[in-house]
Structure formats: structure tokens, C-alpha cells
Amino acid sequence: MTMAGSVTAAGIDVEKIREDFPVLKQTIHGKPLVYFDSAATAQKPFAVIDAIRKFHEVDCANIHRGVHELSQRSTAAYEETRSKARRFLNARNNSEIIFVRGTTEGINLVVSSWGRRNVREGDEIIISAMEHHSNIVPWQMLCEERSAKLRVIPMNDRGELILEEYEKLLNPRTRMVAFGHVSNALGTINPARQIIQMAHRAGALTLVDGAQAAPHMNIDVQALDSDFYTFSGHKVFGPTGIGVLHGKMRLLNAMPPYQGGGDMIRTVTFEKTTYNDLPYKFEAGTPNIAGGIGLGAALDYMTGIGLDKIAAYEHELLLYGTEALSKIPGLRLIGTAREKAAVLSFVIDGIHPHDIGTVLDRQGIAVRTGHHCAQPVMDWFHVPATTRASLAFYNTAAEIDALVAGLHKVKEVFG
Ligand code: PLP
After folding, report:
1. Which residue range forms the structural domain that includes residue 335?
2. How many domains does the chain have?
């Protein structure tokens, strides 16, 4: 990788960025922490930690209800995040931005509300072979309930979806195509625009699981023309328990509420309740106010660096890591798509991923081992589990060197 001082060719000053992440400063088992588990949850910069702290220290009040100053401030800060999320996704309108707990809830909201209203016996839902369980199980539950059919776009040996096979699956019964923008287990960046266009030509809607795309690249829901797009706050350097579902206004307006309770109503009598306007119709009860404010700070942080710079830097890191890992005898990368985001999933002949993870942990290196909530992906590649190093813009080439050294150690212990 080419670097001038700590500034990389992509224009990211990684050493300066690392100063913003207090977690990264510690040692684990006497070694500097190398955090390669950002796909599971990303670390939080001071900007996020401070925004949450400030809310609790200075502004803390419930939102949308009070005329008093604290409530006004809290409401303004929370709603400001809606504007930030709209800009982050390039959505048309704040009313299209629904706050949810995370990607899982975003998908479940669409399944419960849109799905129950629109999916009937004999209808078909298409997902892909590389989905996270969050984008499999809710659709499976809906299909069981409605006697609908779940169909799966297959992938090739590199971990790329086979679009010719997808084309064959589309038919007039297809109601929804739900797929991950980026695979958490393989790193594959799917051709979202093309998948969406093909679905639309067949008269189907689309839901994009953006959990692993939002931390790594510019997202433009208008250019994609996605009908629903969802991501999690904690994977974009924000807090847990908050996320965003974007939906096209016409679709959201036609959908029934997801949950009933405070804030989602306009009037309530024992005879009848009328519902609030978008987006509040889908936001029952006191939300994760601190989380929403923290998410706003996280989105500011990322856009402050620049999503294009982040993507370029991580690509450099991915190429460096791919080359370095490929030199380790007996190591096989799982997921070698031509379009790939910052995930290095691999197996090593004869060594169980849990053993790899344990030895790496002793070197201070945090990786994820297991099926990554994508068991069908593991089945497809005939492996029980992989070791996954997932990268973020605060990682460095030196940390990849430490991973390689750690893996040599693993081979010494188990070889
Ligand atoms: N989809 C993908 C591709 C993911 O990687 C994840 C989390 O790992 C999820 C969905 C679920 O996200 P959450 O647990 O934040 O709801």
C-alpha cells in the first residue's frame, strides 16, 4: 500500500482516525488490539460517544410530546438524525425514513406490514443464496403463513449471484426480491441496480439489506430505485438498537402499521383509532432517542471522512490482505467475487476456525469464527464455519501483517 506519512493513497489519514476510537488504544493479552470484527459491530468514535453522553447529561427528555425546552431540544436532535439519514441514503423525503432497531427489524417490519397485506397463496418471494438469516427467516415465516413459495438465486464458486438463473426465477407470481447489497459472510458486492431493474421489469418489489453496504460505500436509494432499503446503526459506527428503514412513500402510505401504541396514532377512541402520518405511523412507543442521536453523529463522522474515500481505502486494504493471506499454505479464501467489500473469510486445511480464532485472540487479534448467521452459505461451500476478518477504515496494513503472523502461529500450534 502506498502511504505518505500516515496518509494513504486513498487520502485517508488512518493514524488520525484511530485517535478518534478509544477502544482501539488497548492491549489484549499484552498485545495491541487488532479489531477485525467490524462486520459484526463497528467501533464507535468519540463523536458518537460524546453525542450520547451529551443527550443524557444535558438534553434528556422524551420526544414529540413536551412543550418544555428539554423535550424540544431532544426532539430536534432526534429528528435531525432523520434528515442526516435521508441525506446519507439520498432519499427524497424525511417521511420515507423509518427508525427501527436495526436491519433485522427493518426487514421484519416490511414482512409483517407489506407482506401480510400483499402476499397470497401461490405467490413467490425471491431471496439469494448468500443471505444473512435476518433476510431468510422472516420471509420463510411469511411464506409458511401464506402458503407462498420462497425461491433462491444461486451463486457460483466465487460467491457471485448467477443472474441468468435469477432471470429464470422471475415470473408474474414474484411479489418481492429481497437481497443483501453486500454479503457479510463473503464480502460480495451484489449488482443491486441490475437486480432491482430485473425485479421491476417482472412487476416485483425489492428490499435491499444494506447492513454490510452502509459502512463501506455511498448509497443512493433514488439511483438504485430500491423500494425498501435498511441498515443498522451499530455497523456504521453508531450505537446498537437503532437503524433505518427507507421505503418509497407510496408503498409506506399503503401499508398498515407495524406495531400499535403511542406516537403512531392521530386519534384514539375505544371504537376506532386513526393513524399518524409517515414516518410516525411506523414508530410506536418511545424510541431509542439516545441511539438516534448517536446514529446522527455516526453518519456525520462517516460523511466527514467521505464514503468514496472510505471505499477506496478499504479496497486497497482488501487487495493487500487478499494477497497476503493467499500466500499462507493451506489457506483457502471463501468468497472471491470480483466486486468485493472489506471481508476476508477463509478456512485453513485441518484446523477448526474456532481454534484459529482462539489462538488469534491470544495475539490480540479479534476475528469472527462460525457460520456468520449465514448457514446456507457455509453449506454451499461445504464448510462448517469460516474465520472472518472484516475490515474498516480504522484498520491498517500493519494490522494485516499482524494477522498473517498470527496465522503462522496458528499453524505452528496446530500444524
Ligand atoms: N444482514 C446482514 C447482511 C448482516 O450482516 C447483519 C448483521 O450481521 C444483519 C442483516 C442483521 O443486522 P442486525 O443484527 O443489526 O439487525
Report:
1. 3-32+306-414
2. 2
